[in-house]
Amino acid sequence: MENLLKSILNTHSLSFQELTMPANVDISKVGKKEGLEIWRIKKFKLEPVAKEEYGEFYTGDAYICLNTKSTSEWNVHFWLGEDATTDEMGTAAIKTVEMDQALAGLPVQYREIQCHESSLFLSYFPDGIRYLSGGYDSGYHHVEDMLKDWKPRLFHCKGKRNVRCAQVECKDKSLNLGDVFILDLGRELYVWMPPESGRLERIKGMACAKNIALVERHGQAQVHILDSDWDQDETFWSHFGGKSAAKKIARARNDDEDYWKRTSEQVTLYKVSDASGSMKATKVAQGEVKQSELDTKDAFILDAVNGGIFVWVGKGCNIDERSNAFLWGENYLKQKKLPKWTQVTSVLEGVEPSSFTQWFGDWEEGKKKKSFEPRLFQVSDNSGKLVVEEIANFNQESLDGDDVMILDALNSIYVWVGAGANPKEKEGAQNTAKKYLQQGALPRHKNTTIETIYQGKETPTFKKFFRSWDDKLFQSDDRSVESMRKLLFNR
């Protein structure tokens, strides 16, 4: 680990004494119980985050999140806010390595960048995540102190499935008619649901506001829902220049990122070496990659194009090589001039997640070929470009009647069409699936099939991809906005 320390010190302007200060958390005791644990980086140490603050991330801070699935299976995520200092980033990296070592090198490690988090990370927070400006130390954390001299805050809730509520400027120009916003006045919260906002966005926005009022404010805040009266509430509009401002609000902006950013490229496997003092990536295979091309004595980078970057470390590598995984990943991003937020995942030989093994058509565990784990996506092709949002840890309730969904079972693609999906998406469902198939890079059978499934007419084959199935689920209105409103607020 000495080489990693030197690299972190040089890269992030840290002193050796600062980085090696005794931790205020005994890392050897973490990961013993199933569930999620979160720490923020504070003065080069780990500070536990209170359970009621899970899902809140300050843009000026760095965090480490450990999800323990069992006593031998962990995922470690280090999250970096867009305004985090280089010192905090460096400390997060080194503490992640320390945690990895305490858990025998078995965790899969993920680097998470604000606004570009993995679907797995977002799945830990069913009510979505919220970005708060500044750093934790800049805020008040006792309710009475917090509410004293309160300044209005506006949050933009973005995303149908994986909701991110980001603090934006509290001005009318921040609003648009297609998204849900939360106006936070301290003791009063307004959930603004304009006419073009979708059902799921509305439900997620209400759930987020309820969580703020109940948990963060300890029940000392009231939530107001503005839907049919979105342009009439005087208190809400008084913070945006009066009700006349409602007439000037822009329509929805389609600024979602195109999921297929590098469609012309192929999956590529590189062998990593830093014997010369700088990282060198030597191409091993491209297009079709095989498990046999990985060597237990070496480290490799798998560039899975839109699937992210994986750094695979063989069991024969020493601790320094294991520790250097994320540095190699970041150096690779720089060499290839890829966006800094590109997902980087570190995996150890023998505990590879399916998100890694799926790129190898011949992957076997022992003498048994590893089965493909199906993946579920919400898709939209309204704007002429395919926008894809993955839903991790999905179940039947992840299927939403307002959407067209794709269930990817590798050699079978199922297009699930919700009863409430808009006519354009219904009509183009097959073409959307073909586009998804053509632009993906997974190794598939050349005769991969596409089957359209309509809500309420699911086949037994389709149902088996879900942990459980209830035919009555889609027959009730329990998931309507009004039903959820009554459930959340009893009104």
TrEMBL record:
The keyword Repeat applies. GO terms for cellular component: actin cytoskeleton; cytoplasm. Keywords: Actin capping, Actin-binding, Repeat. It comes from the Eukaryota. Gene3D superfamilies: Severin (3.40.20.10). GO terms for molecular function: actin filament binding; phosphatidylinositol-4,5-bisphosphate binding. Pfam families: Gelsolin (PF00626). InterPro entries: ADF-H/Gelsolin-like_dom_sf, Gelsolin-like_dom, Villin/Gelsolin. CDD domains: gelsolin_S1_like, gelsolin_S2_like, gelsolin_S3_like, gelsolin_S6_like. Residues 44-122, 165-225, 282-356, 387-462 form the Gelsolin-like domain. One of its GO terms (biological process) is actin polymerization or depolymerization. Transmembrane segments: none annotated. Belongs to the villin/gelsolin family. PANTHER family: GELSOLIN, VILLIN. This is Gelsolin-like domain-containing protein. It comes from Ancylostoma ceylanicum. The gene is Acey_s0163.g3500.
